[in-house]
Design a protein that fits this description.
This protein is 70% helix and 0% strand. The protein is mainly alpha-helical. The chain has two domains: 1-51, no CATH class; 54-126. Helix 3 runs antiparallel to helix 4 (90-126). The two termini are 45 Å apart.
């Protein structure tokens, strides 16, 4: 079934308490957006409550961010190795070694960050 383009707006005003209640129900659902949750509720469709482990969601959010960082570091490292193959003088090589050392330290720091985050989640999970 094709999704229709949504072109109409429905504006409502809420009190702070009403907003907190709606936000709570929304966060307990599997809807990804508040507008999706409101449409589902207003059109009397069934709402699926959250069944996923929230701590796993937090873990995945952290891991996705760290994966992005590691990919960036790996790309820089690959570019450095490629540059190494084109160096013609010792001075160029020394410059590359200094840059490599910085990237290596960044990589090791990120690996330590991953280890720490995994350890925190493991401790929380084991409680």
């Amino acid at each position: 079934m094709e999704e229709q383009t949504k072109t109409k707006w429905l504006h409502i005003r809420l009190s702070e308490q009403e907003n907190l209640i709606i936000q709570g129900h929304f966060k307990a659902s599997t809807c990804r957006k508040l507008s999706e949750y409101c449409r589902t509720k207003l059109l009397d469709r069934p709402i699926i409550k959250s069944y996923r482990d929230r701590s796993l969601d937090d873990f995945m959010t952290e891991m996705i961010a760290l994966r992005f960082e590691l990919n960036r570091i790996a790309n820089n490292y690959n570019q450095s190795v490629k540059k190494l193959h084109t160096l013609s003088t010792i001075t160029d090589f020394r410059t590359w070694l200094m840059a490599y050392d910085i990237e290596k330290n960044t990589l090791f720091n990120k690996m330590e960050e991953i280890r720490t985050i995994i350890q925190k989640f493991a401790e929380r999970w084991l409680q």
